[in-house]
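TASK: fixed-backbone design
INPUT:
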């Protein structure tokens, strides 16, 4: 017997599909949180954690003078996406050494690859809106 653990991911994919197909999103913080709890326990730590996040939009400027609105999991009332945090962690030697201490069977290359895959996964649940140039 198997249990599917993709309820939260399915909800995020639903949001990105709505954005692409309808140019709008039918977002509900309650639905966002409930989908999270479909695959996790209702511990005080989990409840507190998910209540600090939302699926929302941040705006970014890129070196190409292009602006993007990025929809993804972000800290409530902040312009910080989970991918921003993951991208930062990916390059931190201390993080790599902590993982190495816990999983000594992994090479540094495997650890760096795991962090990269996690970052790309986080990016895969985002939706980009091209806004134009300066």
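OUTPUT:
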């Amino acid at each position: 017997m198997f249990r599917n653990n993709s309820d939260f991911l399915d909800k995020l994919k639903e949001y990105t599909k709505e954005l692409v197909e309808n140019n709008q999103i039918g977002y509900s913080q309650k639905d966002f949180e409930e989908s999270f709890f479909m695959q996790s326990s209702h511990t005080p730590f989990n409840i507190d954690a998910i209540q600090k996040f939302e699926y929302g939009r941040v705006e970014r400027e890129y070196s190409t003078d292009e602006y993007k609105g990025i929809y993804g999991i972000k800290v409530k009332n902040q312009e910080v996406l989970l991918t921003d945090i993951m991208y930062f962690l990916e390059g931190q030697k201390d993080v790599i050494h902590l993982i190495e201490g816990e999983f000594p069977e992994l090479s540094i290359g495997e650890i760096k690859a795991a962090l990269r895959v996690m970052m790309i996964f986080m990016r895969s649940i985002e939706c980009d809106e091209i806004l134009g140039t300066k």
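COMMENT: The chain has one domain: 7-133.
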